Amino acid sequence: MPLLALSGISKSFGTNVVLTDVSLAVEPGEVVAIIGRSGSGKSTLLRCINGLEVPDKGAIEFDGRPLDWSSKGLQQLRLNIGIVFQSFNLFPHLSVERNVTLGLTEVKRIDATSAKAIAHRVLKLVGLESKIAAYPQQLSGGQQQRVAIARALAMDPRLVLLDEITASLDPELVGEVIGVLDDLATNGMTMVLVTHEMGFAKKCADTVLFMHHGVVWEKGPPSRLFNMPTTKELETFLKAVV
Amino acid sequence: MDRTFGLGEFVFLLKAVPWTILLSLGAMLGGGVLGLIISVARIAPLSPIRWLATGYIEVFQGTPVLMQLFIIYYGLAVLVGVQVDAWIAVLVAFTLYAGAFLGDIWRGCLQAVPRQQWEAAASLSMSYLKQLRYVIVPQAARIAIAPTVGFLVQLIKSTSIAAIIGFVELTRAGQLMASATFQPMIVYPIVAGMYFLICRPLTSLASIFERRSHAATGTKWYF
Fold it and tell me: If you count residue pairs, one on A and one on B, with CB atoms under 8 Å apart, how many are there?
């Protein structure tokens, strides 16, 4: 049974159709990379998965159960689905440690000592244990993004969504974030990520989804999509980015 | 014999200062609590709650505080037959007035926190109230320091309106001394100076708070 199943997801903002009939199944431990041009609906699809956007049509199932769109239902869902944003969205008034422990103490009701221990563990995982007392503004973009990953991982989610998390980083900082993702993929973390890092998608993704104008044009293993694109759109896209 | 402005008159003015401070503090505290409720109600997900809060703000911002004071002081006596004590009337009037303004100021500060911060908090599975408490309000509070102090300074000066219904605070004491001594050009500058001395520390305190809160998060400020 897939951990996440989307079927026939459509979404419009006014007259702007962003997603049309998108379906996707994600198995436990699978890494799905969504690629496509800007404005192709990739981020909106990700936001629909954790309920930040409500699809106009279609169904989303997590762990075999249809999504409950009530606020309680969404809170329950978000305990299992972590998200990392392109612009980090760290809480600027809180230290790195508190950014990571906030959800643990206030949502999961874990005591402060255990929460700090978890924060140390996940920050070590992303190589930022030494920055535990720093504030987000005192970190580089790459470091902030790694804290954002640590914050999501601390909640022990079953699925992590990553929305173009290297897009706003300087090229020399991309490597440090990709390294963390690489480790997560190796350790069997289920991930759905929107990315422009074709190298990472090729190396770590089990499935690649190519979106164009809100529609899934191609879906399959990276070896097939990157080497033998069957549509003109993907071929053109790959020529432009690779 | 004409009475001249001397030490006794100065002490009389000085004795009125605590009433101005007490009235301002009472209105700040009451208005602060009310303002917080109003500001949160103004951005509530449920539209009837937003409408109620908007209506409250519009009524109290759209009418002079003097009229509000008259309605509470004289109106209640006429309508309900209860003669409200002047102190209670001014305190209630200024609390309601401050609540509307602070509610609107803080609403703006809450909305100034980027939407992505709400989303990040929601993505950690936080309820609406927890998002407010742990993520939005602390950030909005920093934005709110300067406009809140600006309003509080204005509120302190506005309490002089209480003199109209006979409540003896600093301005009323000044009026009494000016009438008694026929030396308004001595009395009123002194009264103005006293208001200045009450208000000035507030603005200094606001600067200190702002510097400290930004220093704590590593944000550099250049003054």
Answer: 65
For residue B12, give every residue at least 6 positions away whose Cβ sits within 8 Å of its Cβ, in sequence order, or none: B173, B176, B177
Q: Is B79 on the interface with A (CB under 8 A)?
A: no
Cα B192 to Cα A151, B25, B160, B171, B189: the distances in Å are 54, 19, 11, 9, 5
Q: What is the pLDDT of residue A169?
A: 79
Number of structural domains, chain B? 1
- Bridge partners, residue A162, by sequence: A84, A193
Q: Is residue B145 part of a domain?
A: yes
Give the architecture (CATH level 2) of A4-241.
Answer: 3-Layer(aba) Sandwich (3.40)
Q: ipTM score here?
A: 0.92
Average pLDDT over residues A8-34: 96
Predicted pLDDT of residue B66: 93
Containing structural domain, residue B73: 7-214
pLDDT at B223: 36
Mutate to test the interface with B, among A84, A91, A98, A158 (most CBs of B within 10 A): A91
Give the closest of A71, A89, A93 to B138, CB-based. A93
Closest chain B residue by Cα to residue A109? B126
